[in-house]
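User: For a benchmark we're assembling, each entry needs the component sequences followed by a predicted structure for the full assembly. Here are entry 17's components. Please fill in the structure.
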Amino acid sequence: DIQMTQSPSSLSASVGDRVTITCRTSQYINSYLNWYQQKPGKAPKLLIYAASTLQSGVPSRFSGSGSGTDFSLTISSLEPEDFATYYCQQSDNTLYTFGQGTKVEIK
Amino acid sequence: QVQLQESGPGLVKPSETLSLTCVVSGGSLSSYYWSWIRQSPGKGLEWIGYSYYTTTINYNPSLKSRVTFSVDTSKNQFSLNLTSVTAADAAIYYCAKARFRNSGFDSWGQGTLVTVSS
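Assistant: Structure for entry 17:
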């Protein structure tokens, strides 16, 4: 299995802050890295696929970067609706695996 | 806009079989990759397997001995059977769609909570 390590596991931030979450994979995965946002009681929502491609309808304050084994998700200016848990997921190997999540909380 | 809706019993007894169905609207099961994914506090998000073009099925090796997918194109639904369940199988189960094998899960059902208890 490809192991996914997200950091931090949680963070506190204020509206307007720039936030970056990182994801490291245990093997090289090209750019097959996806990011999701999940709010309590809801299914995950795809934000970014192929490391840096914004899913249709997702605000441009979200961006992704990286390749190989190191990736990041950046929210350029936090909005109130962005407080949620974020997950990375690799789709290079068809044994798809997810990170453990990063909870973004209000400071 | 593809929509997915899971259904099935919310309570399953240990050692019995969990059966869930996902009804798809707005998309054909003959296209795309259709997956089951579960989420539990202990294991986080865990991919169970996918069906592609109704004939290609790929399971997570950790569950492969207990999992069976079936696809019914006439009803536009796909199903999950998980045998010999234990408390470790208690989770929220989601069905989800990916446009391509590498493209991420772009549509999800709302999820169905499964409890394992006698």
